[in-house]
Amino acid sequence: MRKTFGVLAGSLILVACCASVSAIVVKKVIGNSQKDIVYIPGTNTPLPGGHLAALTSSQIQPVDLTDAAEKTVHAVVHIKSTVQSRTRTVQEYDFFFGPRQRQYRSQPQYGYGSGVIISRDGYIVTNYHVIETADEIEATLNDGRVFTATVIGSDPQTDLALLKIDGKDFPTIPFGDSGQLRLGEWVLAVGNPFNLTSSVTAGVVSAKSRKIGVYDEDGGIESFIQTDAAINMGNSGGALVNVKGELVGINAALESPTGTYAGYGFAIPSTIVRKVVSDLKEFGSVQRAILGISGRDLSEIRQLPENRDKDFGANEGAYVVQVLAGGGASAAGIREGDVIISVNGRSLRTMNELQETLAQYRPGDKVEVTLLRSGKQKTVTAELKNLQGNTEIVSKSDMQILGASFQDVPATVRNRMQLSYGMQVSEVGSGLFKDAGIQRGFIILKINGRQISSFQDIETVYAEAQKSQDQVLFISGVTSSGSRMNYAIGLE
């Protein structure tokens, strides 16, 4: 049975489809005659004979996902993370015997998730939150083999981690380009929900560059692929693949009032995954490149009462709220109020898309930034820098447990506060700084009595504190408003 799908070119061409939506019939009218031309979706070649009878049984399927499932299910592993039992000493007060110490021993704790083998020699990508507190990690393959996995590196800001198991000739999933995904495109979520190993669910890409706020507190990067393929607890770290069986995302989150699947799941795009994994493998830490701005979606800015009648020259883009001193944007001449609409030719609609794009580069890379200023288009070249304000490679360091990055004190702040030394906290994520209550913008003047004038000073004092008996950092400084603050951070 056929039914009308639409009319094109003033009723000269009629488009129809069969009930399974497996073929498109173009009915071309020429004079008093007409001809049926049958196409399979995704192709530009008409079927020979031009009739539905020419369809084979495989072509009648709306979308064939069996090949993608077979290609990928063997390369998705079950991850078991174990937190070993620990003994904790607690100071208590007894009414009869006074103060005394009591020891408590915790029970081992277990967590479960998924991972994706991305190389034949056993590198596995998963979510950081799957292995965050683990003392031991086991990876179980689809064929039942169990391996001990070691952590090569992790990145809380993108919620990704790279593991390694010993062996060779493992099944793998090749990387695809998440940037080429289109809304409505079919995808598969492959993983281990509820400890049900080797499970496959299907859905479509329902949104791109989605921000849901799960990493906001940690200064994380969010530009999720949203899908209605069912994702549940245990799917974290598993694969989101396209119909070709290529890895286009790592499943990471779900949004639900019940904690289980309620319609939407979210995956980290493969464009980000590939870059993070490459950095962790080569350097042990992510080489994060920043443009040196803070901003908001132009669509939000246009809704402000004072801007509703203002012509920005575009309806969408990344609106520059602040340009950081000493950054690549400042050197390139980018100003507050500019609207960034593309980077290296990739069009941008939101700040999330700008974040996702920049996450694919390293410090020292130069990018072409196209922007609108007072409605006029302008293109500038900006050199991206790291969080310390330079282009040097950031090596893996135990200082990562501080969970903070640093920059020189901006000249305006230094002059206003009459400071001759100090380093400013530019970002605060998960770590000891956040636990101690140190916030972004705090200016460190001294650590353990030593004046701090550079990032190297912080590294030196940190290394000395690690070797000391107390292993404590005594930090003194001022807030951006000028209030004096002191903190003590234990490194044990």
Shape: globular
- Unreliable spans: 1-22, 57-61
Computed structural class: mainly beta
Question: For the largest beta sheet, what order do the strands appear in spatially?
Answer: 11-10-5-8-9-13-12
Reported for the largest beta sheet, the result is: 7 strands, antiparallel
- Give a count of the beta strands, DSSP E runs of length 2 or more: 31
- Rg, rounded, reads 27 Å
Query: What is the average of the pLDDT values?
Result: 83
Q: Give the distance, in angstroms, between the N- and C-terminal Cα atoms.
A: 72 Å
Strand percentage: 35-45%
Write structural notes for this entry.
The structure is a single chain. The chain is built from 10 helices and 31 strands. A 7-stranded antiparallel sheet has the order 11-10-5-8-9-13-12. A 6-stranded antiparallel barrel has the order 14-15-16-19-18-17. Strand 6 (87-94) and strand 7 (98-105) form a beta hairpin. The chain is globular. Residues 1-22 and 57-61 have low confidence and may be disordered.
